[in-house]
Protein 1
Amino acid sequence: MPDALPRRWLHPLLWLLVAVALAAGLGLRQPQPPDEPRFVLAARSMVESGQWLLPHRGVELYAEKPPVFMWLQAAAHQLVGSWQWSFLLPSLLAALLTLWLVADLARRLWSPRHALYAVAALFCTLQFGLMAKRAQIDMVLVAMTTLALWGLLRHLCERRNLPALWLAGAAAGVGTVTKGVGFLPLLIVLPWLGWRLHRRHLGRAVDGPHPATLLWLLPAYLLGTAVWLAPLGWALLHEPSTALQSYAHELLFKQTGTRYANAWHHRQPVWYYLQVMATLWLPGSLLLPWLLRPWWRRLRRGDLRHWLLLGWAVLVLVFFSASPGKREVYVLPMLPALALAVAPLLPGLLRLVWVRRYLFGYSAALMLCTGTLGVLLMSDSAWAQAQLARRAMPETLLPVLGQGLLSFAIAVATLAVWLRVRRAGLLVLLSHGLLWLLYGGLLIPALDPFASASAVMQRVGQRIGPDAELAMVAWREQNLLQADRPVQEFGFKRPWDEQWHYAGPWLAQAPHTRWVLVLDQAMSPCVDRAQVVDIGVANRNHWLLLPGTAWNVDCHAATVGMSQEED
């Protein structure tokens, strides 16, 4: 891996590869579902209204997530001036911060050489790269949890370091008001106490900071949470409106404790995260058979660094596995700790021929999969046509996607011939760099008009003309975000029949200049179907456009349907 290059070039070349690969595609696409449009929509509302305390989704308060991530997106927009260029910046900067923290910890805990291996191990994990290129909360959460681990490990493994301890507590607090599980780094205290008991059981001296110093974590943690909870508490005391109280109850109770103990969606079996690690943590998960025994030896001889890193990772896994609601991104905070735990073992592992063969085989499989997919797309196969039809995409996409995938496969094959099995680690590193360049620079931008709903919303604007007014019923966040004019909407979670209760009179007030965009499943029976315009499909949703003249003012039939479900 890193040993295949001159040592003086290792650090700058690795960081150059990481930065370019993760930044590829910045400014080339719009927010895409499921999560990105709702966060950008809330951030845009903050910028336009000047009200940053409570995020909004249209006219409704958005109570599913705290506003910290949306603050970051809004602040990035204020600096850059473009949503297309700014909405991915928080995730990109959080990913780079996480990698730097991992490198610094590996340097402190082991050596500068091991810092390179830790960064490479984290960068080459599929899930890390995917989340670094998505505008979701999770990458910022990982940066906060890793920063907290950085402070805690410096205090517990090096020497008494109260500034680092305060930083750890504050980072955990900010992480908690970013996404509720930001407190998880504090659980590292448990394996530390276990290590102390283990040392005493063996009759060895127990060094390190006094346990009482950890009490400083509490005020630091509260200080971090006060970033948002303090202004929210002030607003509740001075403006105790029903909407604000409902928002606070929804976010602080239902979306935290209730969601963890009795999740109403994303319910998965207890072993779900094992399959996540076996797939999304490739290629590192391939090395697990060679890692277990060395880890166990280090734990038995009382290596504090591995006690803390592995013990904390196990606690996080148990914590999320105990909840019935599971998503693959929940275990993402474990990755930096595991990359650190792997770093001291990688130099030796990469000298083993079977490890090199596994990594070479992984790169070959990546090459074969992308090459086969590229050929299928370029050959205009029935499978490719079916995928286009399912997503209402044009045939012109096929050669673009196919050539990109085939070019990537050829590039990886060329690297494999050049590097061979002997330098399989470097092959994996360069392959992942190329993969994220392809993903961010070509594949996602090519799919963007259809994935972001910008294509269908452009057709809406062209169909109704520049002077018409537009409303939406049963809308999705990306529709509202991509609209080319101010939109009248009647709530996101409000039942569809109630939305029509307001949309009908709105249409009737100016039937010749007003239109409604509606999901096909939510169409009202009070509409003249002959005047309805089929405007197309976006994100596997079929959208219809109806003029005000299609509304029957004498009809009072109710629409059969529900409201939106939060993903």
Protein 2
Amino acid sequence: MYKVMIVEDEMLVRIGLKNSVDWSKFGMHVIADLPDGQSALDMYQQEKPDLIITDIRMPRMDGMELISSIRQQDKQTRIVVLSCLEEFELARRAMSLGVSGYILKLTMTEQEIESVLSGVRHELDEQQRQAAVSVSHNSRAVPTANLELVKEKFLKDFLLYGIYSAEEFHQFVQQSEMRLAPVRLIACVIELDHYARLTDKFKDEHGHLIKMTLLNMLDEITSSFQRGEGFHLDHRHYLLLLSFEDVRSEQLIRQQLNQMVQRVQEAIGTYFGSSVSFGISEMVNTYCHLSRSYHEARQALGNKFLTGSGKVHTRGEPLHLTSLEQTLEHIRHYMPIRELLSPLKQQRYDDYIDMLCRQLRDDHRAVQHLLFQFIQWVSTSLYDHHQNEKTLLSDITGQLEQCDTLPEMLDQVLDYLSELVEYSRNLLHMSNEIARALQYIKQNYAQNISLQQVADHVSLSFGYLSNLFKKELQITFVDYLNRYRIERAKELLIGTNLKSYDIAVQVGFSPEYTYFSKVFKKVTGLNPNEYRRQWLSGAGTADASGVKR
């Protein structure tokens, strides 16, 4: 599938275009919709979309500058301009920069959009055909970086989207001189553990350094063993395709496979100070079954969520959940937290633990969602008793979102519960005025409330209440209100199908969506749509296959 990015500062136009087109009809899917040129350029550097549909007049960086910046480094990405009648001259200038077409926003029809997209699809297909031909006729003359991109694109189109047949893939393997015979094939999917920590550690926001380093590692390892190919799937997933044409003993194959896996683990540990997890497929003897092998490996890798990071997983392996069940029972019987709850709420507490135990073997997303609900319920239950509104500020949900696995998440939950107990033991009581102010915020956060309104409600002056917030909560009124609203927005993003701009209104932000998105990113590190995509993918960000981590 060809990747599409939409860049338009008018939200209704952007969302309307994204949702009104049957993109699959053109072999396309929208990977991002962005409100300005600078965000689009950053996303372009990370995702390298096949098609960019962009407005001309936008904040931060306009469409002309965006197009020029892209064309300085890339002549292949197709670009379509969205314009108004008064921007016609600019649209004509854009055409000189290698733009495939333009669409008039105010008069665009479904037929016009489909006509433009059909033309772009034709250009992309022809571009891909020529790339394959160039590999066929003169693969050694193609720069290595370009050849690797062509190989990655061809592999994904074959494995993930079924665009090419096994025979066409076989021909491509021979033409590009891959070490990949159609005999005794094994797929090994690699996942970088704690990817966000790696990008922070190496100040590699878009992951380019990590990607190039890891691909070089895989190339060195496969070359030293004289078998297989390594590919980039998405920001945190890589694929090793291995062929053991010259080894007939299954025991020797497994032995050599384990050696290669160990080499990858050691290299990641040495260069990145981190770990990786693996999902390994059964062995097949034809390219026809490679797609199945890939999905087997992804499915096996999914066991990481229950067993922890840094392990090797195979199809059909037994899952030992005793440790998880024991941890959940420890949480159930954690008396210091139970003592803070009423008997009725203790029963509800037990109900959550029972549901978590029952769902351990179910969909991982459902387990995560239930765990988030449990934590939010515990917090809310304590809020009702005014037992420590400061728990909101620890942002436990943010900590859970950084976890790769359920064991890590449960450790965070235990730490959080201990923190609640410690707060209670230290008698961190708030003044009656602050308690009343926070209760007012909880009841009215969806409205356009101000510090003055809250001050009037608790019979204090504007300035005195402002200072009281800073003194007792170590945070300003506005920051507290925003963080509370964002917590409620996060619940709606993962628990409903509401559009993010509707959620912004429901939690009390002005109809100006941009401010909500800015505050959301400041608090969580992601914009609302990225947060929802990360939740739905279970990873932090969506990956190449859409399979949950």
Protein 3
Amino acid sequence: MSTSEPSTSDHGATSSTPDAVSAHPDVDAALVDLAEGEKTWGALSLADHGRLLDKVRDLAVRNAEAWVDAAVEIKGLDPKSALVGEEWMSGPYPLAISAAALSASLAKLDAGTSPLDDATFGTGPGGRVTVKVLPLDIFDTLLLSGFSAEVWLQEGIDRATAQHDAGLAQRNPSRTQGVGVVLGAGNITSIAPLDTLYELIAHNRVVALKLNPITDPLLPVLERVLEPLISIGAVRILTGGADVGTYLVHHALVDHVHMTGSALTHDAIVFGTGEEGARRKAANEPILDKPISSELGGVSPTIVLPGEWSSADIKFQAEHVATQRLHNGGYNCVASQAVIVSSEWKQRDQFVSALRDALDRAPDRSPYYPGSDSRVAGATEKFPSATHLGKNGGRVLVTDLDLDQYTPLLQTEYFAPVLGVIDLPYGGAEFATRAADLANDDFAGTLGINIIAAPKTIRSMGSQFESLLERLRYGTIAINAWTAVGYLTPSATWGAFPGHTIDDVQSGIGVVHNALLIDRPERTIVRGPFRPSPRSVLGGEMSISPKPPWFVNNRTAATTARLLTGFAGSRSWTRLPAIFASALRG
């Protein structure tokens, strides 16, 4: 998330040890309950686990309106705004579809097969085995026409091994893994409950979920949605500030910690703060005496490969990049923060002008996330020539600087509506290579990267394009889509590129979501249509998708997202016409 200094608004945990704070009997009681609940959870069958997930799915849909109402209040949105669609699409909707997908994987395990038993496998660059995760059925094909996703496995994992190991801890559901803490995020409201489900299922750990104080108004809703798991002692939800988070993660009854947030907050929890924390980190001497996994965001790039675009293409892709930055007000861990373009591209100026216009015209909203204004001010101080856009001038666009002047933009996740355009003086295949090297070597983090390219450009590159994907060290790579589509795909993996350590954590350690329970994934590749329908069809793309409902200027996003959430609870052909009608009006 944000790489600003650790704060209670960030995660509700700092580096203090329990000795420095008073005891929290409510935390003690919750953890004692979970220690007992672990026995109950371990005694349940795979079918029981699946039924509990089905109940969570149903309750997520049943309580969706209350969930969205709470999110609208937290974020200061106009309840009648189309931007409310973001709260449907990033709140109850992904939890419902993920619970269903996890339940389906458990059903296969219960039947004695693998979650990957009927998966579509392929071969990626370097001989990697790939697993198709989108579309998985006819409804996926229709509702996300032209979108696809695949998980690349780590090198050396063959198909038979992947099928054998899929299922993770649910291959032996009676063997539980203790009590895990989930430190919830304060921006996207589905993150905390999704991470809770993943801890329970993939790692077979009961969960103490600590909400970020920003999302405390969601407590009553989440208690209702997760009630089937709370009632058996498998989940407890806690609230409070930094003292509660600190006491919780260092508690003797806790076996594991998972957090979503910033690398600075991670380091504060693991090593401490100040000079002593820096010394401990340098020596890799953690004060946290238990394993920690994490999703920590970073600075996400968007690479625009030069090609011949129509005026409509330029306008649409400018809106696409504006969405990548401005969705949820800019407070996303994979919000694009830097667009890499070729200065030799003949349409470079036209695209940057369209991007400036898209950022300026996007719907205004309140900067709800703590510290946003100060981070925007910090960017303005670093880049005094930046353009201020939007009704109140709160959006910052940085352009036309020398490459070395962009260093703060590449190393600081502003977690605010700040976007830069970086020009590289190369064309063709060399531009793609140089852009990939810049993204790999100069940007902080490895969570996600976007590539925008016309189909003709991709075809002209041939195998070089797949080699470009292999070259990029990111956990999710999206081609003509935003990496957030990977977040919304329950069977895709979500997390940093593998290999980070606690003393060099970057975008985190481990993955979440991953409803097929794949062992040793490397990355997820998402692909989407370059053009919306009907221009996509006219251009030869196999897609009938109109403007996606997650675009910030989609006029019917709220209605479409609400209908999709209802569909997630009851997948029926009769629900499709209303969804299509709403989507086409967007």
Protein 4
Amino acid sequence: MRKCLLAALVAAVLLPGKAMAVDVDAFVRQEAFGDLKISPSGQYYATTVPGEDFTALAILRSSDNSVVSSMRPPSNNHATDFHWVNDSRLLIGVAEKFGSLDEPSPTGELLSMNAESGRTELLVGYRVTSNGPGTRIQPKKVEAIAAFLSDDLPDDDRNVVIAVWPFSEDPYTRAERLDVQSGKRATVARSPVRRADFTTDAQGQVRFAHGAGTDNVNKLYYRAANGTDWALVNDESVSARIETAIGFSEDGQLAYLKSEQSSGPDAIVSWNPQTRERKTVLRDEVVDPYRIIVRPGTRIPVGALYLGDTPRTRFFDEASADARLYRSLEAAFPGQAVFITSSTRDGNKVLVRVWSGSNPGDFYVYDIAARKADYLISRSDWINVEKTATVKPFKLQARDGLPLHGYLTVPHGSDGRNLPMVVMPHGGPLGIYDDGSYDREAQMLAAAGYAVLQVNFRGSGNYGRAHGQAAAEQWGKAMQDDVTDATRWAISQGVANKDRICIYGASYGAYSAMMGAVREPGLYQCAAGYVGVYDLPMMFNRGDVQDRKSGMTYLREWLGDPAKLGAVSPVNLAAQIKVPVFLAAGGEDKRAPIQHTERMEAALKRAGTPVESLYYKTEGHGFYTLEHKREYYGKLLAFLSRSLGGATASASVPADKGKAP
């Protein structure tokens, strides 16, 4: 009894005003909806619906939100990209991923779906088979290809333009017109560069091609019209930047390009095809464009959404009707990111997504003429946004002067001072970044009473080309120094209790967690790694990165000489880790094979370091199964609590009964 009372007293002092148990179920259950788009007439909504190991697509009737039809792909397949072709038919892109943290890998297959009946048909892709007798007049073409939508041709209810990548040694991309009912295809352009994406004009003519050859050098080409020759606009090997075309001005006289810069964030520039004159039309001081804003009912670019210290929008013309529309929406949802996901064809009704660090996301239908917004649906309606943790931006300079930015999540009701803290470096690592949006893990850890530090170390996306390039061959070196510098910043600011800090991450973040414990003895009181990579030379002969044609080039460019990587591999440095460790992995992980974790655990045991582990042979890169996620996060919270004194998981309740703080 005395021990229980003492433990309660200690926890009350460490975590004032916080519950002594975390409802894990509220943080691990799937979101109710993902992306949402309105049909051309406004009669329907299409939405992705996440499942345990798949993502389905559902059609809702806008008059009453009733489900009209749906399609569910097989396990590990996900409807990731979808577009309304007309009011009764959609085109769906499919991706595969083998774990909840895995990045979706597009299969290059395109499906057609009837909104009313839910009937789906594979039109293009490597698994297309010829139709049997009597099934259709024009059989679909059987070909080993991948295809991706380039233009949904708003003025054409039957056809779209797609980019077709042949599976061959000389895979120069074709632009084809695809009939979404018959599956018939006709070539309209051939790219001068491999693995190209196409950009079309308002008439649906292919005008830009962007891609990279086997040397991974990006090139951008332009042509004046169908049938004319391609002209080189940008060569990365000459300009030291990547450029992509995002569309044309209303009069068609200017093209807009997203352009990397030699330093600082990317810019949006106008480019005159006649004079080749460039002008910067938008550039944030800190971050890259997150989403391009288009005029409702059109594909004309008019601005961009930026996710920096606060979400913000910028427009080519700040006095335009487009800017005024966004300003009125932003005034209605202060402190949140606002983005129009889709609109009716006439542009009168728009679907608006609203989200923030404390709000997973709500959708509204806005009638522009009536200036009226109606609430539609929430991604996670069981989350009480009034009681979620606070997410605050921060910035600092790394020891070598590189500007760093990140986010600090502070428990609800806390004064943000002298807190136990979990440092959580993101996975990836290259091109991935934390953007201050609602983060389930960070919110769950904050509910346990911890401050959560997420820093966008060098190599992270969103801060321009130079910030990314600074990570070359810096695994376990300057990239790790950035995490250390951010941790020490939090201590110096009085946020973190210097004696109560742990480091935890997944994938690359798990690698960083182990290297943090290796390189900074005394800074962290424990370290936890989830589906991590710990043996860098192994990445050159195991896993799906080295399986890809460009994978070995990527590994050598970014990690370095495999003969030298043993020196920055945690599996070889286990004797330097003097704090408790928790490891978890899945047996079907193709990105970070389970052998990484098994070897790390064995090395720690040989060194006499306390280590706990959890393995699921049927899981991949991030656990899918709800019961497995419950157990994993329950064990993680218990592990952290033993070093930091935070709350542990409450007894499990059915997922539909959980209510998050």
